[in-house]
Amino acid sequence: MALSDRINTFGQDLLRRYGERVHKLAINAGFSCPNRDGSKGRGGCTFCNNASFNPSARETPPVAAQIEAGRRVIRRRTGARRYLAYFQAYTNTYADVARLADLYGQALAEPDVLGLSVGTRPDCVPEEVLDLLGGYRAQGHEVWLELGLQSAFDHTLRRVNRGHGFAEYAAAVKAAHRRGLPVCTHLIAGLPGEGGEEALESLRRVLELGVEGLKLHPLHVVKGTQLANQWRQGEFMPLSMQEYIALAADLVEWTPPEVVFHRATGTASLDILLAPAWCAKKWAVLNGIESELARRDSRQGARLERGLAPPSRCLAAAG
Ligand code: SF4
């Protein structure tokens, strides 16, 4: 069995709905982040790579050129002929709405780009930006708002210097849903001070609010971060691969089958990854999650179908 037989993956979801493979093309439009320049916070999240914020990293090729480079690679590798422009790097709503409309519009002008996926922070989605994205959706484009939440616990968010709390996330989700925009929420397993119970409780709170997509990542340490210092000083221990696989399988089992997993693990390039080394092996981790679900004779939503109590009730006062 493949992973997509046990998990409702985004790739399969797109294939079902469009009748052909649709692939994401990652765009770096040169945005920065309000959690670094003082408008929302300073210093950035403790796990975020500082080096990526030097000015030269923001001198990016035009959107159309990035799409052309990406489509050449993806077409050769996967055969996909239709794409989603994935505004991925940093905070992709952090500009005035005219600039955003220009950048998103450049992507949508490409005839084989059927929509957008826009990654951002929950405290950086003003009404006019949501109106812009909602407008694209009303025109028939596939549009996803990807919100980095990471944890539903405010004390954890403070500890990793996110610069926002769960309340901002809840408000952003409600505002997106009022415009019919589907939300994909990013969660991190293994954050400092958190174990499996907290990850399950974060999932429970996200599902309770309503979400259409999820991205799961194990917390990994990359060069040039505050987390790297904490890891070197022994203040932070990453999850083992087996711990992450077991926890990811738990999270999948507690997620309703209709929620789409855009990602079930995360990776970093070897030149910046410090720990854990297994994070570089994306396919080994994904195969491990599939094997773990097979061992349990299980799949997405299985625990809900068995009528079990929701996870972590004892932590319901989180935040
Ligand atoms: S992880 Fe995202 S929100 Fe945090 S500092 Fe980096 S770009 Fe900003």
Automatic annotation (TrEMBL):
Keywords: 4Fe-4S, Iron, Iron-sulfur, Metal-binding, S-adenosyl-L-methionine. One of its GO terms (molecular function) is catalytic activity. Residues 17-257 form the Radical SAM core domain. It holds the Pfam family Radical_SAM. It comes from the Bacteria. CDD domains: Radical_SAM. Its cofactor is [4Fe-4S] cluster. This is TIGR01212 family radical SAM protein. InterPro entries: ELP3, Elp3/MiaA/NifB-like_rSAM, Radical_SAM_C, rSAM, rSAM_horseshoe, rSAM_sf, YhcC-like. SUPFAM superfamilies: Radical SAM enzymes. The keyword Nucleus does not apply. It comes from Candidatus Sedimenticola endophacoides. The keyword 4Fe-4S applies.
